[in-house]
Design brief:
Blueprint: E1 22-28, E2 33-39, E3 44-48, E4 54-61, E5 64-68, E6 71-75, E7 80-83, E8 89-92, E9 99-106
Antiparallel strand pairs: 1-2, 2-9, 3-8, 4-7, 4-9, 5-6, 5-8
Length: 110
């Protein structure tokens, strides 16, 4: 457990699982959710949308194919993908190393 919940190194929490994507939540309130997702090679987050929530992904390690709306792009560390409410989005790790990214959603899911 992090002794100071206000400052952390997200990649210290990155893990992979053979059967599904790894997710951990760093912060959750009624207004905001901040978490880390890690996908092993070949894993994906299926296309989906959030009718009333905006979302962004910030790639921290690895690279992945991010889809937002009709666009699909390879994103690497430091790149940001924005998915406004109602726009379909998803991600696939088509590389050969783990893909870790911050996921931020507002307002937070219930």
């Amino acid at each position: 457990m992090n002794p100071n919940p206000y400052f952390l190194r997200p990649l210290d929490h990155a893990r992979t699982q053979p059967d599904k994507a790894f997710k951990t939540t760093f912060f959750h309130s009624d207004r905001l959710l901040v978490g880390l997702n890690t996908l092993a090679p070949g894993q994906k987050q299926s296309l989906h949308e959030h009718a009333d929530q905006d979302k962004f992904y910030l790639v921290l390690a690895g690279s992945g194919l991010f889809t937002v709306g009709d666009e699909r792009r390879l994103c690497e560390p430091g790149q940001l993908a924005l998915a406004p409410a109602g726009v379909i989005h998803g991600v696939e790790n088509a590389g050969d190393e783990a893909l870790s990214f911050l996921t931020v959603i507002a307002p937070a899911p219930g």
